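This section describes the prediction task in plain terms. A model, or a person checking by hand, is given the sequence of a single protein chain and must write out its three-dimensional structure as a string of tokens. No templates, partner chains or ligands are provided. The sample shown here is typical of the held-out split.
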Amino acid sequence: MRVLSNLLADIERLPTRSWRGEIRSAAGMTLEVDGLQRVLAVGDKCWAETVRGQRLLCETIGFRNGRSLLMAFDHLDGVAEGCAAVTDDTAFTLRPGPGWLGRVVNALGEPMDGRGPLASGDHARPLRAAPPPAYARRRVGAKMDTGVRAIDVFTPICRGQRMGVFAGSGVGKSTLLSMFARHAGADAIVIGLVGERGREVQEFIQDDLGADGLARSVVVVATSDEPPLMRRQAAHLCMTVAEELRDRGLHVLCLIDSVTRFAMAQREIGLAAGEPPTTKSYPPSVFAELPKLLERAGPGSNGKGDITGIFTVLVDGDDHDEPIADAVRGILDGHVVLDRRIAEQGRYPAVNILRSVSRLLPGCHRPEENHLLGQARRLAATYDNMRELVRIGAYKPGTDPEVDAAVALHPALEDFLRQGKDDATPSLEAFRRLDHALTLTGDPA
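The expected answer:
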């Protein structure tokens, strides 16, 4: 039976038809092709042949002056005017499945970990798919333990929720994601390193993720030097793999770092296709693509699993109101803000609990947990307002009981929020520790 299944899969891969066009011009990563404009639709794949007899995978991104506009998934070395562009029904197919767990792949679904071919799934899946119909989706499920105290207490994540992690460069996004990957209560994990620095990939996989984390993960990598199509496709491939595992009934944690680099890749593609630049030179297609990607995460329909999505946003110049951050924040179900000032003080993860929000609160905590959370946030806000007066000695102890309680809580709260990447704390234990810290402050409430 297995032999017959493999034979049918091979038959499906056989091309059924082929059309040839001619490359007329090349500019940057974009090719103009004559003869295929009535064959190729936007998003279709084909091959561009080079003078050296090689073939480059391309995607149709638009049309101009009666010609097809193609963008390549690789550099255009060897492509010359008059070279052929050839359509092929099997130019690109995806067959993800449980056999991908523990593997590292590129944006085309090809193995890059040196461990041989991937075990294909039962059927091909489209790279882009619509999320389950809104009415058919279940509601967000129970709270998911991440092992990170600052998250589980102040910005809890529930099964099927979509959360953003907003931070500037070097503030600890990747390390926080690795803590989720190691400790979160999910059946499978899909990790997308989109536009990542090449030297950091092995560091993340070996040091941050570790062997245990990798064993239940699929890692999709597109480094910053790869063409924009590869970077954009890496994010969509993450969602495709997550959807395959979700449809098998698994609870999937999907981590993508970062949505900003996905948007930058789409900006390059849109501008090359002739779109007009708008806000901060981002073309309109960027803001249309973001919800199409992010909405694919979330609760599944009845009888299937869920995709809990955590997406990092690299805020430009620590400006949390820049266009991409603002658009993503309006789509997701909450946001975690990593603060450079906190990181510079040496406290990691550098979560700013006052600026971070989970839209599933207060429903995902028990009443007593919400009471502790409210106390801690109120005292943290009081201390933040009085920080400078306390620092310069202008506040006299005993003037205000609430300020006194906030000052007393601050060291214990900072210690509570400080956590190593190998330190996992169950949610119940985290609330017990917070309750103990609040009891010692003599909080007037």
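For orientation: The two ends are 69 Å apart (CA to CA).
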